[in-house]
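sorry to bug you again but im stuck and you know this stuff better than me. below you get a single protein, a line of residues and a line of whole numbers that encode the local backbone shape. mainly i need to know what kind of three dimensional shape the backbone takes. anything you notice is useful, everything is just below:

***
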Amino acid sequence: MKKTRILEDCINYRRLKAVAQRVIRTTAKQYWQSFCDRLTQTTKLSVVWNMARKMNGIRSNPSATSLIDAGDIIESDEDKAETFARLFASISSSANYSETFQQHKHDVETNHPDLFENNAPSSKNHR
């Protein structure tokens, strides 16, 4: 649709999108009705709330999602943390600065060390 910019493609895309949304809505409604039909007096309330959250698209365990980095699937929390740290470090790197800014930064850090001194008085809470 966006690539061809043909009106016929746009109309066809929106029609098919509407059909897909209708199928999803009716299927979800049927599933919820069948779930409610299976409820009894002994059904735990947590089971009902968990299903309601699932039906609304809310994940009960967001840490269970995996990441993909350079084609590799990352699942453990430690590996996710390492990946985020590595990507954050690369984004925050001085290598992303222009050559002019890097020269200015180096000049300020070299010739004006007083700008980086901590002159704040110490307090009881912070030492």
